[in-house]
Design a protein that fits this description.
The chain contains 15 helices and 18 strands. The longest helix is centred in the N-terminal third of the chain and has 16 residues, at 89-104. By secondary structure, the protein is of the alpha/beta class. The chain folds into 2 domains: 4-234, Rossmann fold, CATH 3.40.50; 251-409, Four-carbon acid sugar kinase, nucleotide binding domain (Molybdenum Cofactor Biosythetic Enzyme, Chain A), CATH 3.40.980.20. A hairpin with a 2-residue loop joins strand 16 and strand 17. 38% of the residues lie in helices and 22% in strands.
Length: 423
């Protein structure tokens, strides 16, 4: 039975959210295809791969997934959204809530708290902040080509929701007081309550209060709120140790994200002993007449893997239009996926890139084992190939994150600084 059901719009988010369930011993799987067999998992996270879809396509994708996997016996229905509010999530939320209403017989109250303090994301007065900077002023927002601001109330009202608010001051009053406020919001006709959160304790209060509500709410957030829900239900969570893999074959790291954070992490990894780096020009992947260049990259990659060295691959060196992300990810997957049988472990940064590579390799899901650090989840692939896979969102982590991911797959421990770098 699926006790916890998570719908995400990209693969790294689906894994990052699901890992909270794995830390308390739940059999947890991330599916790339909702029709794939979850293998008896009690926590199921589905990547509907909808971030780059049109609004209509995204709506149809979430409707089909929720209709197939959600039931009255599901205890937690969770809509995982990007912590910087990219994607089609307001429309997806409307469709998810409608399907849930059909199943439950009444519309669930939506609790939304996208804060993720461990990665520098906070919500204050309904506004999203990234490392203290309003989302609308960040490079992330501008890079994504988004306009306006990170005001959740305005976004949700524009999507047709009746929106209530729980400020930091109201959250600070504790779970009992917040429960009463949430219940009152539902009584006066609110569809959604936006909950401020600046710390993990704030999220824990939101989780505890909403779990006490009658009926079954629909929770919306990043991985931060999911962690808080697991903690509130299960008690203090002590993350389990990530299994020691000691990969006998080379480790392949692929950075497909355009984030400057990921590029800094790639450079740090490339400087490590035993790592061969390969930088691929976007033009070689987008132009049909660049076959010679692609074959050169393929030969270089094969030679590096045959030598027994670990390999780090990235796309950069030219300006990339974000709209061509799916095309570049698919072309990169054509180069990478056929070589996964030669590697002992895979590290992928960027949800679009991870999805494209795993799809092309015939991998249908990931059975989640644990996390290297917040934002970097480890699972074992299911389907055509079974290898350990670490997925990480582009803007998460500090400069040494990929080095720690490599160390984990080598069976080594590597310490983490207390800072989480993002832009």
């Amino acid at each position: 039975m699926t006790e916890t059901f998570i719908i995400a719009d990209d693969l790294t988010g689906a894994a990052d959210c699901a890992v909270s369930c794995a830390t308390v011993g739940a059999d947890t799987v991330v599916l790339l295809d909702a029709k794939a067999d979850p293998g008896g998992a009690t926590a199921v996270s589905v990547d509907v791969n909808s971030r780059a879809m049109t609004a209509q396509e995204a709506g149809a994708a979430v409707i089909g997934v929720v209709q197939q996997l959600y039931s009255k016996s599901t205890r937690i229905l969770y809509h995982k959204i990007d912590s910087t509010l990219r994607g089609n999530w307001p429309l997806e939320l409307a469709h998810i809530r409608q399907v849930a209403t059909n199943v439950l017989g009444h519309p669930p109250l939506v609790i939304i708290a996208p804060a993720f303090p461990g990665t520098g994301r906070a919500t204050i007065n309904g506004q999203v902040f990234v490392n203290g900077t309003p989302l609308g002023n960040t490079g992330l927002w501008k890079q994504a080509g988004l306009a306006g601001s990170g005001d959740l109330r305005a976004i949700l009202e524009d999507a047709g929701f009746r929106v209530g608010m729980a400020t930091l001051e109201q959250v600070a009053l504790g779970s009992e007081a917040l429960k009463a406020r949430l219940a009152k919001s539902a009584e006066v006709g609110c569809d959604v309550v936006v909950c401020d959160a600046e710390t993990d304790d704030d999220l824990l209060t939101v989780a505890a209060a909403s779990l006490m509500l009658p009926g079954k709410p629909l929770w919306v957030g990043s991985a931060g709120l999911m962690r808080a829900l697991v903690t509130a239900r299960e008690g203090e969570v002590v993350p389990s140790s990530v299994p020691i893999w000691a990969a006998a074959r080379p480790i392949l790291a692929v950075v497909g994200s355009a984030s400057s954070v990921s590029h800094t992490q790639f450079d740090a990894l490339a400087e490590e002993q035993g790592v061969i780096s390969l930088t691929i020009l976007p033009s070689a992947l987008r132009e049909s007449n660049a076959l010679d260049q692609v074959q050169f990259y393929a030969r270089t990659l094969d030679a590096a893997l045959t030598s027994g060295s670990d390999v780090a691959v990235t796309i950069r060196g030219e300006v990339i239009n974000l709209q061509e992300g799916p095309q570049l990810a698919a072309a990169l997957a054509e180069l990478i996926a056929p070589r996964l049988s030669q590697v002992g472990g895979l590290i992928v940064t960027g949800g679009e890139t991870a999805r494209a590579i795993l799809d092309r390799a015939g991998i249908s899901g990931l059975r989640i084992q644990g996390e290297i650090e917040p934002g970097a989840s480890l699972g074992v692939s299911t389907g055509a190939i079974a290898i350990p896979v670490i997925t990480k969102a582009g803007a998460f982590g500090d400069p040494a994150t990929l080095k720690r991911c490599r160390a984990a797959l080598q069976g080594r421990r590597s310490s983490r600084s207390n800072s989480a770098v993002s832009e």
